[in-house]
Amino acid sequence: AAGRRLAEVAARNAPPPLNTTLAVVATDADLSKAQAQKLAGTAHDGIARAVRPVHLLSDGDTVFALATGERPLDAGQPLALNEVLAAGADMVTRAIVRAVRAADPVVGPGGAWPSYGELYGGVRREG
Q1: Which pLDDT band holds residue 21 (cuts at 50, 70, 90)?
Q2: How many C-beta atoms lie closer than 10 Å to residue 43's C-beta?
């Protein structure tokens, strides 16, 4: 039913806008430039978990990572970075899902685009 409603909206409107997802992942871990780059890459997997389709030619999906350096990684644990990397991907996924569920419909020059809640119902607003 949601697919049918979305097709009806698309038929009334201009072509859908191009889709880009931007994310910022921040940690208090002390990461090198290479480790922060790896965090951005693995956090990008969070987009792939939450967005379909993803990584198309018309997408500009990007994740930026930053680290404050306040907390050193456990030197006695060689794979300590893995926990940070996994958390980055998980948090990007959760952030996208929360944003989509909280979004309002959009009305603009290209037409009126329904929100997830309008298409699928049952969305509880988070405060």
Answers
A1: very high
A2: 26
